[in-house]
Amino acid sequence: MYKKVREWALCVAISFLSLGAISEEADIAFESDLEVVPANSLDELLKNVQERRVVESSEHVQRETEFRGRRDEQQNMLKQAENERTRQEQISNRLETQFEENEIRIGDMQEALDKRLGSLRELFGVLQQVAGDTRGALEGSLTSIEYPGRGEFLGELAAKMGTSSQLASINEMEELWYILQQEMTESGKISKFNATVNKLDGQQVDTEVIRVGAFNIVGPEGYINYDLEVSALVELSRQPSAQFSNTADDLYEADSNDLIAFAVDPTRGSLLSLEIQRATLSEMVGTPLALFSGKGCYLPFCDGQGQYPGSIIILVGIVGVLLAIERLITLTLVGGKVNKQRENAGSPSDDNPLGRVLKVYDDNQDVDSETLELKLGEAILQETPGLTRNITIIQVISVVAPLMGLLGTVIGMIQTFQAITLFGTGDPKIMASGISTALMTTVLGLCVAIPTVLLHAVVAQRSRSVIHILEEQSQGIIASHAERAGRKITQASE
After folding, report:
1. Which of 92, 109, 266, 360 is such that its CA lies 20 to 30 A from the CA of 490?
2. Global pTM?
């Protein structure tokens, strides 16, 4: 029985200790100063339990006291917060009431302002519109380069007129009128001033420019473009044709009292941009040094719009023209010598075809007429190749040139249709290359054919005239020889 009671008491003690340990682990803020002493018997265990109960009771009392103190503190803080909330609610109610009163006062004052303004309200609306429109016009005006800063004032004035609480002053309205009058006056003047010009290499150069109204600006190198995106003067990538660029040079070098013809762009740069984009003669036809330009060209003039077909046509045309010029000069000189020889038929010379034909007659005066005719015919046939040399080639070139142009046209149209097949017809620039090749080769073919046909006609006529003289003189010689032979036969028969 005693053994069972001891076992039961041990179990109770162990359970109580376990609960105490759990309680210690749950309460993080509590730390015990009681040293745990191992129990060797039930008496020692009971003693330890009693000591621990005493310690825990004192600790519970202490914790309860601290809790009550904190509770009182929290109640005080809560009471203070409630008081602050009440005070803020009172302030909020007062501000709401004041806000409502202010809204009513503002409405009354706005109504009174509208009554006092009357028709002036419409005036200020027009003033706002005019200021905004004028600012937009001045941003793209060339006069703003000489007179900067006007757009900022107009923007501020338009924004001010957009509000219902601010009105324009007399000085501001006079300033707007002055800006409008200044723009109208300067649009009809030619002014010279210094301005900053942006070069193509990125440098900014301060130079003297001439403004022609609100249309164009001219510098020492010609026309200057005004870029609206950067609001600055920008050097053109290239000047327009000499027809227009010469007028700009004349204007820049002229004195104040000189009367100069000047090409004005009324569109403020649009026509000038189109003129700059127009292809020059060298860009359309090409250059003779295209072979050394580094653009992958293997023939002269292949850097033009005609490409390789156009280059071949030009080269063939140059050959035809050179041959025609050579024949024209040669036949002109030969014709002059033949005419001189015809006037002096008694002393033939070897430096002209007629002289050589007459020498054949001198060497064969004793032969009969038929033999003499054959001899002279042979001499004329020997002279004919030299007189008709390269004329057939010129004729062939005049016929082949338009055919080559037609070939280039077909090639260009094939390129155009290939581009349409790949990319469609949405972008005309894709087809422009093929179309330009087609049209340019046709033009080049006609430009080669027309002069070569005319030159061939002139050269062939010169050649035929010389040959006609030779034949005429030959027939005259034969006739004279036959007449003399007939007289000799008649005299011998008598």
Report:
1. 360
2. 0.57
